[in-house]
Specification:
The protein has 16 helices and no strands. It folds into 2 domains: 161 residues, Orthogonal Bundle (Tetracycline Repressor, domain 2); 137 residues. The longest helix is centred in the C-terminal third of the chain and has 27 residues. The chain is an all-alpha fold. Helix 10 packs antiparallel against helix 16 and helix 14 runs antiparallel to helix 16. It is found in: Cell membrane.
Length: 313
């Protein structure tokens, strides 16, 4: 699936002056918002609490670190973004921002965010932030994404670390509760993105990205999504009986996973003809529910903390 010539950018007319909105889009604000939300949850559920100023500045640096990852990803992926329908209007492939500017912005934010997080919080959190940026940019974007169908599985770790970084910013450590939050996002990522890949398959074919739908077909993708959904449910229930969970988390987890598993089961037992006939309704439904799932699951962790002695086991 690899092709060295694929990464030679096509000539593009660069606008005389990019707007602030263009540079904001380079940071992948939607991905950044997910990182900020899960990092904030990690920070809030950490024991002993955190000073508001320390909490706010830590989240700021984590957000900038996530933005650095986005800018570096867009810099490297400009060639494949240019041929994919859903990405061709991004700032670099559309010619609004020069690749060199995106690279410079990404590197600057990467250094700034990790150094400042180390100085204002601690160097354990800074290490994991730096590792996350490296993992997303080098391990995922430059290697896994273009070479193997494991890109979604292994690459999903990059998006799973923010809650642990938030937790470490408060405690300076990464106990089992922090890793359970990492595990929850890690297990959630494959079925979430495979549901998406099932209804944007031709984009990945065009860009020659070895997503599971391209390398192993849709039937295998549906089957894998089901088994990963089972693993997700198990990790989810594990968080409910941990130090960050409680009876409310268990109740919410049971409801969220029942709907998720039903959607994954229905998706597994569909054919391509079924999907085409109803406009990929089940796949799109599972993708949308996965967003609700992650938000609700992490939100309930915060509610458990807010309940104090009234919550928990």
């Amino acid at each position: 699936m690899t092709d060295a010539s694929l990464h030679i950018p096509a000539p593009a007319a660069i606008a005389d002056e990019a707007s602030l909105r263009d540079y904001w889009q380079l940071l992948k604000p939607r991905l950044m918002s997910l990182s900020v939300f899960t990092a904030l949850v990690g920070l809030l559920v950490a024991p002993a609490g955190v000073h508001p100023f320390l909490g706010a500045t830590s989240i700021l640096w984590i957000a900038l670190g996530a933005g650095a990852s986005g800018a570096l990803n867009m810099w490297f992926d400009a060639d494949i973004d240019r041929v994919m329908k859903r990405t061709r209007k991004r700032p670099i492939p559309s010619g609004r921002v020069a690749p060199s500017d995106a690279l410079a912005l990404g590197l600057f934010l990467a250094v700034l965010s990790t150094v400042m997080l180390g100085l204002t919080a601690n160097w354990v959190a800074a290490f994991w932030l730096a590792f996350t940026i490296f993992f997303y940019t080098v391990i995922y974007s430059m290697w896994l994404k273009r070479t193997t169908s494991w890109n979604t599985v292994i690459g999903g770790l990059a998006g799973a670390f923010p809650p642990m970084i938030g937790y470490a910013a408060v405690t300076g450590g990464t106990p089992v509760e922090a890793w359970l939050m990492v595990g929850l996002i890690f297990m959630w990522t494959p079925p979430h993105f495979w549901a998406l890949a099932l209804f944007v398959k031709m984009d990945y074919h065009t860009a020659r990205i070895p997503m599971l739908t391209v390398t192993h077909g849709r039937d295998e993708t549906r089957r894998q999504a089901w088994f990963w959904s089972i693993g997700l449910a198990l990790v989810s229930l594990g968080t409910a009986v941990s130090g960050i969970g409680g009876p409310l988390t268990l109740l919410v987890a049971v409801i969220l996973n029942a709907v998720f598993l039903k959607g994954a089961w229905d998706m597994w037992h569909r054919t391509d003809a079924d999907s085409e006939a109803d406009g990929h309704a089940v796949e799109k439904g599972l993708f949308k529910w996965s967003l609700v799932y992650l938000f609700a699951h992490f939100a309930v962790f915060v509610v458990e903390v807010a309940l104090g002695p009234w919550g928990g086991w």
